[in-house]
Amino acid sequence: MTRCRLCGSAALASVVDLGATPPCESFLAADQLDQPEPAYPLHLRVCTDCWLAQIPPLITPEETFTQYAYFSSYSTSWVEHARTFVADAVQRLALGPDAFVVEVASNDGYLLRHVVDRGIRCLGIEPSVNVGAAAREAGVPTLTEFLSPDTGSRVRAEHGPADLVVANNVYAHIPDVVGFTQGLRALVADDGWVSIEVQHLLTLIEENQYDTIYHEHFQYYTVASAIRALESGGLALVDVELLPTHGGSVRLWARPAEVAGDPSHRVADVLAREKAAGLLELSGYSEFSARVATVRRDLLRFLIEAAERGETVVGYGAPGKGNTLLNHCGIRPDLLPYTVDRNPYKHGRFTPGTRIPILPPERIAADRPDYVLVLPWNLRAELVEQLSFIHDWGGRLVFPIPELSIVEVAPKEVTA
Ligand SMILES: [Zn+2]
Hints:
Layout: E1 12-21, E2 40-47, E3 53-54, H1 61-65, H2 76-92, E4 100-104, H3 112-117, E5 121-125, H4 129-137, E6 142-143, H5 149-159, E7 162-168, H6 177-187, E8 188-199, H7 201-206, E9 219-220, H8 223-231, E10 235-243, E11 249-256, H9 265-276, H10 283-286, H11 288-308, E12 313-316, H12 320-329, E13 339-340, E14 358-359, H13 362-367, E15 371-374, H14 380-386, E16 396-399, E17 405-408
Parallel strand pairs: 4-5, 4-7, 5-6, 7-8, 12-13, 12-15, 13-14, 15-16
Antiparallel strand pairs: 1-2, 2-3, 3-9, 8-11, 10-11, 16-17
Zinc ion binds next to loops.
């Protein structure tokens, strides 16, 4: 990678080099274990002109998303998040029965079904054929396309301009950030709104969330760099909300630059926090690589010492980010004999690169391990509760991030 994909600058500085890893969702079937497995460099750099953090775009979204296994509606908390968002957006923008809402990367319609329920006209734009088909079956009009300036113009010509364009959890997933942003501008009415949710680089850096760096995420935004990205398509940031999702996200509210006006005080507040964290100069990034190395050494030391004491450690969860952590740390079945996951699709499969077996969650109660290493650390509160049964045999939870912590779980409360 020689040029910044947002501003074209050649001034890219290394933030952290995580080595080479396979795509994080490429779980292996048993018959693939004797076959070669491609690995791609995972090296995060930051542009010192526009401060967009980025990895090389080696795996195209076309490869990842044309048949996608992730259906948003499977996650109860996401469906609830979407329902609340729609209710708030309808109120905030006073969307009436004549309004038109477009969602980009609309998945299986988990968000737009709430728009349909309110009698508001809407359209999803979703590249995955199978996921988009599920949306149409659920009554959500959905176009199978990737968003480009051309797609945006065609949708506008056919359906009219959108009063609200929603782009949640997609702005990191597209290597052509400028073309995508121009596509958003083509979709939105000249006095309309764009709402984008994306992971926040400030919390990624502050909380050592380096495992959220993986090949599906091409870039990582501060609000400062998001403003530059929006500008590249003729949009301007008006307001921002900080959200707890994915360990720390931002919701960006943008409008066509001509009508945007001054940004809110909340924008100024977040920009001030990012500046104070040193993220608009190299100083904010310079310690990150050393802190990542500490996370790795602490986790490996714990696993090796537990193994030498004859204690058992198993994993909980097989999320995409877990594979960045396992590959970067070099953790294989000698240190972690298996992990468990609630998604039946993953049972009997193996983690990419590290080839750790994935089993059903019931295995933990059957084996009574001394420690359970939690890979989806972002669900910490929920999992401390859900896995409290390991207290029965003195089991403890281990969280690797933001730093290694070993947690005694409270016994399950017995209700009379
Ligand atoms: Zn740049």
